[in-house]
Every structure is written in C-alpha cells, then in structure tokens.
C-alpha cells in the first residue's frame, strides 16, 4: 500500500478548511481535527486502490482522470439579500446559517 506522506497530510488540513468555508460552516478545533482524521482515512483508502491489479478487470473501459486535471472549486460572490427572506436562520451580518441544535447529545 502507498504510504501517506506529508503532502497528503497538508492536503487534508487544507481540505477541511476549504470545505468548511465553501459550506459556510464554522468548525471547532475538535470538529476540524475529527474531519481531518476522516479525510486522512479516506485518502488511505484511495491509496489502497493503487495496489489493485486492474488488468484482470473487464469493467474499466474508461480512463481515470487525475485530480490535477479536474477543475478547482472556487466560490463565487452571490447576491445573498434574498436568503434572509428564504430562511429565518440566515444571519445577514455573518453570512452564515445559524441553525438551532435539534439533536440531543448524551454527555456520558
């Protein structure tokens, strides 16, 4: 299996920050750490795919694209004036959705 290198680790930390920003989420330090660990596990699973012998598979009839060949996500400035009318949870000052907690946590 391909080992996780420091570049992959940096990508995970950057991914957490970028995804949170794109989703307009505020993450606590613990949540960011949890997501970073989840992304790292996901990357490890992709590295396991490197070891698969695809020559025996007849279902791979199309080329796989490198991540570098894909477009990069870039947020666009949008008119958010209508969001406060559409959702009572949109905070027009912070530009985030302040959704009340609805899941109860058991702190045991």
From TrEMBL:
InterPro entries per UniProt: Asp/Glu-ADT_sf_sub_c
Superkingdom, natural source: Bacteria
SUPFAM superfamilies for this protein: Glu-tRNAGln amidotransferase C subunit
Xref: Gene3D superfamilies: Glu-tRNAGln amidotransferase C subunit, N-terminal domain
Full protein name: Aspartyl/glutamyl-tRNA amidotransferase subunit C
Species name: Candidatus Synchoanobacter obligatus
Lineage of producing organism: Bacteria, Pseudomonadati, Pseudomonadota, Gammaproteobacteria, Candidatus Comchoanobacterales
């Amino acid at each position: 299996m391909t080992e996780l290198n420091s570049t992959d680790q940096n990508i995970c930390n950057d991914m957490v920050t970028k995804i949170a920003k794109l989703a307009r989420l505020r993450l606590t330090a613990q949540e960011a750490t949890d997501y970073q660990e989840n992304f790292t596990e996901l990357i490890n699973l992709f590295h396991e795919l490197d070891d698969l012998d695809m020559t025996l598979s007849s279902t791979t009839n199309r080329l796989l694209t490198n991540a570098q060949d894909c477009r990069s996500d870039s947020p666009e400035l949008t008119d958010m004036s209508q969001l406060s009318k559409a959702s009572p949870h949109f905070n027009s000052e912070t530009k985030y959705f302040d959704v009340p907690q609805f899941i109860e946590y058991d702190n045991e």
